[in-house]
Amino acid sequence: MKFFISHSSKDFKYGDAIVQLLKDIGVPQQNIIFTSKSGHGIPKGEDIFKWLKNEIKEKPFVIYLLSERYYSSITCLNEMGAAWVIENEHISLFTPGFNPSNPEFWEGAVEPRELGAFIDDRQNIIEFADIIVSTLGNKVNPVIFDEAITKYMETIENIKQEIDDSEIIDYVKLDNESTTTNDFIPHSNEKDETLDSNTNNDIQFKKFKEVIEIENLLMRSSY
């Protein structure tokens, strides 16, 4: 059986971690469809929509990697609808921070009351991996299985940390750009300059507090 990971390209790193987990628990590379990665995606020269349509018709096991980004993608929603029409066997995986009570999830093609799993929850992922192994009809050495889960969880935590650090850096950059812009605002008279000086002092104090909070956050995340 083939396994098709329906995902947003913006969730590539999470999807790639799932691909590696599938391989580590015995799914052959050629049986994994993951369009964002060479070797698992669309063959060169193929029409993407025709190829996906034919693959979905073959009834692969569909793994929906759900996120806010997924529901913002017309392509992802088309994949979900096509797989639903064919009635493919499937499971939903939730990216970190995704809220299963999201109205778009409940109104979508996937039955919201069916089994779903958070990709950063170890027990959820063990149950997911058990389903995959059972679907394949394989037997995996318990030690190898546990090592695959541990390796996967470490990868997911690293990805989450990278995303958190990136968001902090983006916030600092945005704050710096805002402060720099304020420095170039002209002042019409002495009274305005006095008021602006007090305002700048307040801004600098708030900025100082934010920087301290960010440094503390980074220190905690490094432990």
List the helices and strands and how they pair.
Blueprint: E1 3-6, H1 12-24, E2 32-33, H2 48-57, E3 61-66, H3 68-71, H4 74-86, E4 90-94, H5 103-107, E5 116-118, H6 122-136, H7 142-183, H8 190-221
Parallel strand pairs: 1-2, 1-3, 3-4, 4-5
Helix pairs in contact: 1-7, 2-4, 7-8
User: For the record, what is the CATH homologous superfamily label of the largest domain?
Assistant: Toll/interleukin-1 receptor homology (TIR) domain
Protein structure class = alpha/beta
Strand order of the largest sheet: 2-1-3-4-5
What series of H and E elements makes up the topology? Answer: EHEHEHHEHEHHH
Contiguous runs where pLDDT drops below 50 for at least 5 residues: 190-195, 217-223
Apparent shape: globular
Please name the CATH architecture of the largest domain: 3-Layer(aba) Sandwich
So how many helices? Answer: 8
CATH topology of the largest domain: Rossmann fold
**How many domains comprise the coordinates?**
2
Distance between the termini: 42 Å
Rg to the nearest angstrom? 23 Å
Say how many strands there are. Answer: 5
How much of the sequence lies in strands comes to 5-15%
Protein name: TIR domain-containing protein
GO biological process, one term: signal transduction
Domain TIR: 1-126
Keywords:
223 residues; alpha/beta; Rossmann fold; five-stranded parallel sheet; 5 strands; disordered C terminus; TIR_dom; TIR domain-containing protein
